[in-house]
Amino acid sequence: MSSNEMHINVSWCRRGFIGSAPELREPVVALSLGGLRRKIESLMVPDSVELRFHLDHQATRERDARGTQDRPVR
Questions:
Q1: For residue 53, what are the domain limits?
Q2: Within a domain: 57
Q3: Which backbone phi and psi does 5 adopt, to 5 degrees?
Q4: pTM for the whole thing?
Q5: Each residue of 52-68: pLDDT tens digit?
Q6: Are 10 and 4 in contact (CB under 8 A)?
């Protein structure tokens, strides 16, 4: 892992996508993966960090059900 890369574990519950990582003080919740990315990036300011999402089974199913499986998850 490079110094500007952060790996985020993502799961899903009724509240939305939940991202967690040791670098975050607490889990971050958002209704979409894009929203999750924006929230985490805003927490990391002024650091420039590249996020890598690792979706669990339930998060992958929810992403696919929303019709976003053709869009790359960065």
A1: 5-65
A2: yes
A3: -115, 135
A4: 0.77
A5: 999 999 999 998 988 75
A6: no
Tokens of 73: 């998850």
Do the domain assignments include residue 21? yes
For residues 23 and 36, what is the distance between their CA atoms, to the nearest angstrom? 15
Tokens representing 60? 């992958």
Residue 39 in domain: yes
Give the count of domains, the chain.
1
69 and 59 Cβ atoms separated by less than 8 Å: no
Question: Is 9 in contact with 54 (CB distance < 8 Å)?
Answer: yes
- For residues 23 and 2, give the distance between their C-alpha atoms in angstroms, rounded to a whole number: 14
Within a domain: 38:
yes
Between CA 62 and CA 52, with CA 21 as vertex, the angle to 5 degrees is 60
